[in-house]
Amino acid sequence: MRRPLAAALLAAALTAAPGARASADSDPAAGRAAEGARAVLDGLKTYGQAVLRAGDGSVRQIPAGLYEMRVDGGGMLQTYGVGIAGYAQPQARYTESGWGGSPLAGNAEAGRIRWVLEHSYPQHNDLAGLAKAAGAGALTAESAAAGTQVAIWRLADGAQVEAADPAAELLADYLQREAGRLPEPPASLGLDPGQVSGPLTGAVGTRLGPVTVRTGAQSVTVTPDAAAVAMGVRVVDAEGQPLTSAANGSRLYFEVPAGTPDGTASVTVHGSTRVPVGRVFTSGIPAEAQIVAGSSESAAAATARAVWPQPAAAPAGSVGQLAGPAEVVTAESAPSGSESPDDERLATSGSSAATPVIASLAVGLVVLGGMVVLLLRKRPLEGEDG
Length: 386
Fold this sequence. Notes:
Structural class: alpha+beta
Shape: elongated
Distance between the termini: 34 Å
Number of strands: 17
Radius of gyration: 32 Å
Strand content: 25-35%
C-alpha cells in the first residue's frame, strides 16, 4: 500500500507547487501567420521533354519546363516544379511558403536550386550566352526551360532524369555542376511575429507589439479587422500615431483600450511587389509544389494577430502599464505579484508550500504503522494467558 500512497502524496505536492507560466505565443509555430501571395496555376507553358528512369527499371517520357500562375489581386509568376513525382494540375490553388513549410524543408540542396534559378532561363534570358556558357550549341526557350527543370529535379529529388534534347541535357549538366549555394529568399510580404500577446494592466490602455513589416514593396496599406474596430483597438506606431500605411521595417502596435474584455484582433497589410526568385508555392500536395523563377509586380498580403487575456489581480506599478508612449507589452507577460520571495526560493530549492503537509502525513503514517504492529504483537500474548 505504500507505493500508491507515496504516488498520491507526490501528485498532491506537484499540484500544490507554484505552476510555470507561459505566454499565448510561446510556441514558435503559433507566431507565424500566412504571408505573401496566393495564386492559381494556369499550367505548363514553355517546355520540352525529359526521360525519367524509375527505381523499378521503368523508363518514361515526361514534360519538363516552365509553368505560369495567376496571382490573386493581380500579377503573374513563372515557376518550375520542385518534385518529379507529380504533374501539377491546372487551376489548383497555391500559397506562398518558406522552404521550411515545403518539400525543400531540410534539403541541403535548396540553396543550389536557388542558384540554378538565378543563373538560368528565364532570369538569364540571353539564350546565346547561356548556350555558350554551357557548351550547348544553340538553345531555344523550350530547351532552356527543359534543361533548367531537369537540373532542379536532380537537386531536389536526386532523380535519374535526362533532358530529351541534347542541348537541354548539356545545360542541365552545366547547371548542376556549377551551382553554388544561395540563402533562402525573404517573403514577398510578411509580418514578424505573426502573433503578440499580453495582459491588459494599464489604467489608460495597453500597447501590444511590435510587429515588424518585411517586404520588397515601397509601401503597404494597414487595415485592422472588424473586431478591432468594434472594440476600439487601434493599430499605431511607436509614438501612438494611427497607421494606415507602412514600409519595410515599419513597426506596428495594437493599442487596446483599458477595460476591453478578453479577446483578439488582427491587422492585415496589403502591397504590390515582385515575388523573390526561389520562393516556394504549395497546394497541399507536396509532389506538386512550385518554385518561383520569375515574377511581375504581384499582389501580396500578410496578417498578424494580438491576444489579450485579462490578468489576475496585480499590484500597482507592474509591467504593462502604459505610463508613456514608449512603454509596451510584448508576448512576455510579467510575473504575478502573488508570489513572495520566500515562495520563489522554496520553488527553486525543490521545496514548496506543500512540504509541511507532506511531513505531517508522513508522521501520521509512522504512528499508525506502529499502532498496528503493537496490536498484532499483543494478540498472541493474550491467547497464551488464556
